[in-house]
Amino acid sequence: MASVAEVKAAVDAALQQVTEGQQAIQAAREKLGEAQQSLAAALDGSGNDAVGAAHAQLSQADQSLEECLGATLVAIEQAQQYTATL
């Protein structure tokens, strides 16, 4: 069985991976925002339904990433609460 110190170290390592994942999520959100702006500029004035659908899907993707980021924050809090009890 792992010692308390080993468990805490393993949790800390996992939390570092989560932090790296959060950074990747933030980078993805930024890229999606840039893509949405580029798409809007390229298709300015178009009334085609596909253009509106593309914008809506990019907005949905951003919202999903925001929810994912929120879930990682909760996961970090829970892991930290656990290790505080060790």
UniProtKB/TrEMBL annotation:
Record-given protein name: Uncharacterized protein
Organism, as annotated: Paractinoplanes brasiliensis
